[in-house]
Structure formats: structure tokens, C-alpha cells
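Interim report, section 4.2 (structural modelling).
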Amino acid sequence: QQQVKQSPQSLIVQKGGISIINCAYENTAFDYFPWYQQFPGKGPALLIAIRPDVSEKKEGRFTISFNKSAKQFSLHIMDSQPGDSATYFCAALTTSGTYKYIFGTGTRLKVLA
Amino acid sequence: NAGVTQTPKFQVLKTGQSMTLQCAQDMNHNSMYWYRQDPGMGLRLIYYSASEGTTDKGEVPNGYNVSRLNKREFSLRLESAAPSQTSVYFCASRVWPNSYEQYFGPGTRLTVT
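Predicted structure of the assembly:
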């Protein structure tokens, strides 16, 4: 049972463009929403995360937008660079619960030079 | 400080063979996790250990067993490998309860023929 739906499956963006990846969740008990970045042959690494008490969090070129009422959150990559080409996973966690992270299915991003 | 290490990096098994995937972390983290990653499926939790001495099932535990050997080490065992277990396996660890960030190992690519 997929509790976090991620789209698109793949994304191609020109260098300097904006990359947008979306996720939707069902369980209202989730209260921590991270994004992980994975390069080929490597394990995922935390990129940025948000709690539902804020609607936006920005770290450099990466921004999470969070819509609690719609149960959706998205990752925006501004001024996308070829080095951003990777697979991105959203995830959700109930911090007071069972330590079980639920991951989205991933988005493969390719930034063209 | 090596972070999370996994052995082996690659393995080919025949159906019915058994093997143990090893994971160790040197960050003094309490919680450890085993995931499998399949194309289009994202990361799915197999087993986790919230703290030393405890283990619990994740989303896809069938066909696997785990051992939390000590605080550093968490192993995953396939007793009778099946082709459906062909996947990339990731181990992760987390400080609990002070942080929600998971640190992933480099993965083990397993093929069952």
C-alpha cells in the first residue's frame, strides 16, 4: 500500500531551469517530510526536510513547499545544474510513532547542459 | 569516521542459497534499518531496529531475518534466496530521539538466478 505518491517518474530540465517534483500523502499522522538525493551507485543522502508547522523551507537552491490541507509537498530546484542530475525521493515519518519511514517511488532528474 | 558500511558490494546467488548481508555504523546511532530498492518501487523497509536488542518488521519482511548483533552492527539474512529478492539493499542508521535524519550505506547489489 503506497502511502506517499511521487510524480513525475522522470524529469528533464535545461540548465538554469526550475525542477519541480511533487509528493502527496494520505496519513495525517505524518509530521516529518524529508527529501533524499541519490546519485548512481550511491546510497540516498538527506537533502532538505520540513515539519508541517511551516509552509516553506529554503536551503540554497532547494526549496520545499508544504500544503497541509491538500496533504501535498514539493521540491523546487532553482537554477538547476547538470550536477543536480540524480534520483530524488520524498519520504514521510510519524515522529512519535514506529520509526517507519515511507518513501515515494523516486524521480529521476536529468539536467541538460 | 566511515559512516555506514555494507558488505559485500555485489553478490550473485542461485535460487535456494543463503547469505548474510553485513552492515556496520561507527556514528554511535541507536536505530538501524534495512531497505530494498527496486525500479519504480522506491525504497521499501524490510526490518528495523529502534535500539540495540530490538528488531521489528517493516513493509516487506517475508523471506528475510535480521540480527542486531550490537549497537554497531545489523545484519540481514536470506535463508533461501528467490529471484524475487534480486534487488539493491541499503542499510541506514539514525540517531534517536534527537534527529530524524537517516544515513545510508553504499548498498549491496544482489542478483538471484
